[in-house]
Specification:
226 residues, mainly alpha, 9 helices, 0% strand, globular
Length: 226
């Protein structure tokens, strides 16, 4: 692995760890426990993306999400090798972020029974509903990313647009699934939560990848590709 390759992958590790720690941390410590907790969690995820976009965007592109990396791969923006490297380090970063959050929560005496910001299908009416909402939300999120990052003149505002998009998909999805749109973000907390979060995990891996693939296909139509 080249040093340049390692820098990209390490950036994805750090970015994903921050996203999980801050986003899921807001769900653990706020969530529905305080007025406006739902919105606070949504903005925590969105602002995490904004911050990381301006920190590591010039290193790795700040995917910090296997679904985003899949969209980039299908749009021929990254190689297959980089896709595998990105996803591997994104998942490691998510696990590290969840581990730090778990340790901090235990120290603070927070009851983590069945939580840690995990994604669950029950709020969406079960498996079918969760699959549908996650596919739709990921489609919107990845399509936005592909569009806003394709034009170099939008580089200065791309991080903000992407962060705001992640915020509004969370506003819609939190009451239903907790909002994943990111397999790595779901894997980390589920490993520490266990139980139903682990049983439902496959939904939050499969659905975002389907949504990302659909977004890449639609974006190719927008660009007039065959």
């Amino acid at each position: 692995m080249s040093n340049d390759g390692f820098e990209k992958y390490f950036a994805e590790f750090i970015g994903t760890a921050v996203l999980v720690f801050m986003g899921c941390g807001s769900a653990v410590f706020l969530g529905a426990a305080v007025p406006g907790g739902h919105l606070a969690v949504a903005f925590a995820f969105g602002l995490s993306i904004v911050a990381m976009a301006y920190v590591i965007g010039n290193v790795s592109g700040c995917h910090i999400n296997p679904a985003v990396s899949l969209g980039a791969l299908l749009d021929k923006r990254i190689s297959g090798k980089d896709f595998v490297g990105y996803v591997f380090f994104q998942v490691l970063g998510a696990i590290a972020g969840a581990a730090l959050l778990f340790a901090m929560s235990r120290t603070a005496g927070v009851d983590l029974t069945g939580t840690l910001g995990s994604n669950l299908a029950a709020g969406a009416g079960g498996t079918g509903g969760a699959l549908l909402i996650e596919i739709i939300l990921t489609f919107i999120f990845v399509l936005t990313i592909l569009g806003v990052t394709a034009d170099s003149s939008k580089t200065a505002v791309a991080g903000l647009v992407i962060g705001l998009t992640l915020t509004f998909v969370h506003i819609v999805g939190i009451p239903l699934t907790g909002t994943s749109v990111n397999p790595a973000r779901s894997i980390g907390p589920a490993l520490f939560s266990g139980g139903q979060a682990l049983a439902d995990l496959w939904i939050f891996i499969v659905a975002p990848l389907i949504g990302a693939a659909l977004a890449a296909c639609v974006y190719k139509v927008f660009k007039g590709k065959k």
